[in-house]
Amino acid sequence: MNLNTEDEWSSVVRDRMVAYGLLALYVVVVWFPIYYILITSFKAPSETLSFPITFYPHDPTLSNYVEIFQNRPFGTYTLNSLIVAGTTTLICVTLGTLSGYTFSRYDFLGNKALLLSIIAARMIPPIALIVPFFEIMSNPPVIGALTGSLYNTKAALILTYTFFNLPFAVWIMKNYFDGVPRSLDEQAQVDGCSTWEGFFKVILPVAKPGIAATAILAFIFSWNEFVFALVLTSSEVSQTLPIGVSLFVADDFIDWAHLAAGGMIAALPGILFGLFFQRYIVSGLTQGAVKE
């Protein structure tokens, strides 16, 4: 082996060691908080207050998980989160898919302006809209005489989350359909399909990765949202998991063990989606990067 080859091999080994070292550091930084919450959820309340800090439970217990469902309405919080996030996701996927296909395939008057206005609505800082949404949900215009106040209802959260997630869904699906060859639409029409038949039978199956990415992200955003859930709800009838978890923080005491158990339950969907469905998210978000 000559000197140049040895130098090249040493350089490759050094570069790989640096890369693996940075990757290991990244994994530790990202996963350590989740690991610490997990082990804390299995600790006895007294152990969470002990010093020095322990990085594994000395006497693992499931009592924290059992107690938050027995002593707190965590079952109701979980059900509320599922209803709100699931309904929001269904609405956003349905309207986002139809709107995205329309913006991608039809060049109607005001196409770009309308699309820009939809996306621009999502660029408004959510915190700036808290008071307007509170006023609207407390006294809904037009439909207020029929529905009454929507404050402290799951409908208020669904409408609010749809407002913030729908532009994102339209943007993802529009970009995804831009990457689907128009020749598929033409072939479907040649085979005798109407516009909608071609959409449902040919285009929609091809768009499954984009739909999956939209559904996953809309569900996670709705599931994790805290600020509007705090402002627009006031009782367990409509409060979601993030609010239920925050109630373990009192003015003079923090119940770390139960807080960690509730936090793990609230974080579980995001962790599972990230681990098992990341390929759909990546595919759905990058499909429109290369156009026909």
TrEMBL record:
The UniProt keywords, alphabetically, are:
Cell membrane, Membrane, Transmembrane, Transmembrane helix, Transport
Q: Where in the cell is it found?
A: Cell membrane
Q: Where are the transmembrane segments?
A: 18-39, 82-101, 113-134, 154-173, 211-233, 253-277
GO terms for cellular component = plasma membrane
| Topology versus the membrane | Multi-pass membrane protein
One Pfam assignment: BPD_transp_1
Residue stretches making up the ABC transmembrane type-1 domain: 78-277
Provide a GO biological process annotation: transmembrane transport
Q: Which family does it belong to?
A: Belongs to the binding-protein-dependent transport system permease family.
Protein name in UniProt: Sugar ABC transporter permease protein
Q: Which organism is it from?
A: Haladaptatus paucihalophilus DX253
